Amino acid sequence: MKTLFSLSNLLAVAWFAGSLALLIAIWWVVSLVTEHEIPDPAATWTVFSEMLQDPFYDSGPNDKGIGIQLWGSIKRVGAGFLLGSLVAIPMGLLMGASTVGMRLLNPLVQILRPVSPLAWFPLGLLAFKAAEGATVFIIAITSLWPTLINTAFGVSSIPQDFKNVGKAFGFSRWKYISKILIPYALPHMITGLRLSIGVAWMVIVAGEMLSGGIGIGFFVWDSWNGLSLEKILSAILIIGFVGLLLDKLFNGLQQLVAYDKK
Amino acid sequence: MQPKQFVDMPGAPVLGKNERPVSIEVKDVTIAFPTRGKGVFTAVKNIDLTIGKGEIVSIIGHSGCGKSTLMNAVSGMVKPTSGEVIVNGKRVTGPGPDRGIVFQNYSLLPWLTVYQNVYQAVDAVMPAKTAAEKRELAERNLTMVNLFQHRDKLPSQLSGGMKQRTAIARAFAINPSVLLLDEPFGALDALTKGSMHIELLKLWNLDHREKTIIMVTHDIEEAIFLSDRVVVMNDGPAATIREIVDIPLARPRNKKAIIHLPEYMAVHDRLLSLLTKSFSIEDEGVEYQV
Ligand SMILES: Nc1ncnc2c1ncn2[C@@H]1O[C@H](COP(=O)(O)OP(=O)(O)OP(=O)(O)O)[C@@H](O)[C@H]1O
Ligand SMILES: [Mg+2]
């Protein structure tokens, strides 16, 4: 049984603190070298705490608190990710389960996957007549590929042994899907989802710089226009932190569905 | 049709063959696999084997000679290239719940608990039964192999012997008339193996010795202790049956007592020489001989 204060936990915290200290040290050096053109951690911290004083203030369309901006981005990523996954999972299952599906869809995936999601932005604008829709659209596209590829891989790599169990004991199609195919593919699927949400969170910043409106990406761009590097650095830290949380969330999910845990 | 080279060894007493109804007939079965590029690889050739209901037959032979392939032909997992397999009067065209299989590597579903592994098989094979009946069946079979208190564990939390017993409980729970065991005790230590032998025979006895059992093994003592007949295979490719050896030992057998019987020693010697001879043939030209 692990307690909260076990040695390994304390060590993990210590290493994390060390890593943070290293970051701050490098940052400080860069700040000194650039003669404070890049603000130092202390100056950034002052601005950062100010931002956190009232994260949800709302003074007009172009002046909103960091909390509102962040929440706007999270909602967009959530919506796009959900849409993308709803398409990617069934498509991945299809590709993995049937050779016809694989042969037909794989070239398509191979061609579209390397395209920067931002390239879809104009098409999104055209289709949805709004920047909001277009942003969700590119997030959906971003979320498509890792989930699709990993799901397809998971399904197509089911070991013959497990298939034989289904055959030998006369599993119905439904029992095969629910007791063999899905459980085997699920960890791969979640790996795909985890990669997808990671990329989606990266792309949202760029997407919102294009789209404007409310969001952390727009906030970064707006801070640049307002020449507040402290705000940009604060936003970078926040983006990183939220990304970490999202990753941890899906990591937890992965642990949950791992079947070979001791 | 090619001439049948190895029909149940004429002259050898075929225990059970006449007084029992036939359970399994392997008729002139040849199995070839397509190989990468050039032609086919013939694993087993012209296999003829008739097994009576309630008989326990072991298949023994060197690694890669085609024992699993032959078992797979009976289970329906592999389709014979020529010839046919008939189980309970019906030609085998695919796997079916009349034949319970214990796979060479257990093949438990790792995301299901011990209980679920057994229950899902029962549920698939006997959809007409009520949930309570199916649960009772799964639990009874787990109790038989002494795994009831471990029923909520995942396969990754089991020892090799426990996995094995789960696989046996699963195969028995669907109440097949034929049990196909592919090296079921291969990975076990001598002690566990011994108790598994007893458990297997117990399960067989409980069912009035009506189940036909084919077992692949590498272990001569195990084959003698458990079987009515032992099928010795030649080495591949195109492996055939070398000889079918009768085990003239009355049941119930006492493991410690039988090894001193002259019949036991004779059979043991015979099997050993059959196996080592084929080994030295294979290694012709090599100086040492086993
Ligand atoms: N699906 C397959 N495709 C091609 N060749 C196969 C296939 N299955 C088996 N073989 C070949 O058939 C031969 C017999 O294999 P098999 O698994 O039946 O051996 P075995 O007697 O069970 O060996 P072991 O004692 O090691 O389990 C081997 O040479 C193997 O390479
Ligand atoms: Mg084998």
Question: What is the secondary structure topology, with strand pairs?
Answer:
The complex is a heterodimer of chains A (262) and B (290).
Chain A (H helix, E strand, L loop, with lengths): L6 H27 L7 H13 L12 H32 L1 H14 L8 H8 L2 H26 L3 H9 L4 H39 L4 H10 L3 H29 L5
Helix pairs in contact in A: 2-10, 3-4, 3-6, 3-8, 3-9, 5-6, 6-8, 8-9, 8-10, 9-10
Chain B lengths: L21 E13 L5 E13 L3 E5 L6 H9 L6 E6 L2 E2 L7 E4 L11 H12 L5 H14 L15 H14 L4 E5 L7 H17 L5 E6 L2 H7 L2 E5 L7 E6 L8 H4 L3 H21 L8
Parallel strand pairs in B: 3-8, 3-9, 6-7, 7-8
Antiparallel strand pairs in B: 1-2, 1-4, 4-5, 9-10
Helix pairs in contact in B: 2-3, 2-4, 3-4, 4-5
Can you walk through the features of this model?
The complex is a heterodimer of chains A (262) and B (290). By secondary structure, chain A is mainly alpha-helical. Chain A has a single domain, classed as MetI-like fold, CATH 1.10.3720. Chain A has helices at residues 7-33, 41-53, 66-97, 99-112, 121-128, 131-156, 160-168, 173-211, 216-225, 229-257. In chain A, helix 3 (66-97) crosses helix 9 and helix 8 packs parallel to helix 9 (216-225). The longest helix of chain A has 39 residues, at 173-211. Chain B is α/β, with parallel strands linked by helices and 290 residues long. Chain B has a domain at 19-93 and 218-278: P-loop containing nucleotide triphosphate hydrolases (Rossmann fold). Chain B has helices at 67-75, 114-125, 131-144, 160-173, 190-206, 220-226, 255-258, 262-282; strands spanning 22-34, 40-52, 56-60, 82-87, 90-91, 99-102, 178-182, 212-217, 229-233, 241-246. In chain B, the strands form two sheets. A six-stranded mixed beta sheet of chain B has the order 6-7-8-3-9-10, with helices on both faces. A four-stranded antiparallel beta sheet of chain B has the order 2-1-4-5, covered by helices on one side. In chain B, helix 4 runs parallel beside helix 5 (190-206). The longest helix of chain B has 21 residues, at 262-282. Chain B starts with 21 loop residues before the first strand and ends in an 8-residue tail after the last helix. Residues 1-17 and 286-290 of chain B have low confidence and may be disordered. The A-B interface holds A 161-162, 164-165, 167-172, 175, 179-180, 183-184, 259-262 and B 75, 77, 94-97, 99-101, 103, 105, 107-112, 120-121, 123-125, 154, 156-157, 170, 174. Adenosine-5'-triphosphate binds next to strand 2 and helix 1 of chain B.
